[in-house]
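In response to reviewer comment 3 from the previous cycle, which asked for concrete evidence that the modeling workflow produces usable outputs, we include below a single protein chain processed end to end. The sequence was submitted unchanged, and the resulting structure tokens are shown without manual editing.
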Amino acid sequence: MATILPSPPRVGMVSLGCPKNLVDSERILSRLRAQGYAMSADYQGADVVLVNTCGFLDSAKEESLEAIGEAIAENGRVIVTGCMGQEAEAIRARFPQVLAVTGAHQYEQVVDAVHAAAPVARSPYLDLVPGGAVEDTELKLTPRHYGYLKISEGCNHRCAFCIIPSLRGDLASRRPDAILREAEKLVAAGTKELLVISQDTSAYGVDLRHARWPLKGGGEVRAHMTDLARELGRIAPWVRLHYVYPYPHVDHVIPLMAEGLVLPYLDIPFQHAAPPVLRRMKRPANDARVLERIRGWREVCPDITIRSSFVVGFPGETEADFDYLLDWLDEAQLDRVGAFRFEPVQGAAANALPDHVPEALKEERYARLMERSAAISAAKLQAKIGRTLPVIIDEVGEEGATGRSEADAPDIDGQVFLRDAAHLAPGDIVRVTIEDADEHDLYGVPLAG
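The workflow returned the following structure tokens.
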């Protein structure tokens, strides 16, 4: 009689928030899969559902609570993890039936909770499944051709509007040799684009005193942003840097972009430009120096794309402060701009500041900023018509393909829509002639051959 193997427990996952949370979700599911669990794409097929929460803003917390409630209603067996795990009492008060609550990047605690909720049946056949460490698995929640590479956790800054350090702690950098090994495995599995993420990519290695680690093939690598970017550029076709604070040593990364080792793309969270607002935010306030450095970066690498995010309506922001920001944007000519209306977050120092901006005025300023940035973006994209640009393909259909240029990060920037592209496949990097543009996207055709 044939041996009937027990069906493995199935785990569902709801992942909210930023790409750093997505990496956490990948690691949790990778560990569980290596231990014999199967994944479920819906509530009905799951033995237990994990909800990886975001707690950065009150609106994000409410979205997380709604997701927990939906998971409980649809499945009933729910484990909560992520940033809102710091508020376990509040979660349990609203949803007493949750099985467990753990904090951000507490992988072992999450896995232990899953073991308790849906244990894997012991079997000499199932126990022979190799692996067990996250580095030995290839589970990804992103498409095969791009992946997020987290290089550190936590942050040493104490910005008035942010509670990340209280959720995730101070900066804790990963060893550079471990990061490079993970990058090599991702590329070997088909990843073409590495998206480097952390709370503060520029600060990478500060806590390690920028120590050097030996590499398996000989030589060594320093725990430093510049060195890490250079080594990653030797591994992957595309390397994109996110959440880069404009520290002086960022200047040394720009030549790597000009050489083609790293994508000419910087994601820098400026947050504002007016010095009084930056001081209240507890952020660097030398905006003139920043403008000089942006000009210097463009001299070294003319095709560099700079994206940033800004907060409008921060407590005490005057009309003069906001006009200053608009004038600064005109001068900086940033390629990609996102904006957020200031929102009080429980535990943030900014909540206690005087002169909160009325909601209607926040909305009006938000609309003006987005209109100004859209005009800048449209002009920059119009200037690309007629050029030939490298594009990575994300999706292919009967009517064409969708991809991204070096200036476009997935999910947050624009896209390139291609005609006559049915012969392409996701992950292809092709040369594209740009034929048209709008405020956010480009339109083109791949070169023959």
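The longest strand covers residues 388-397. We consider this sufficient to address the reviewer's concern, and the full set will be provided in the supplementary archive.
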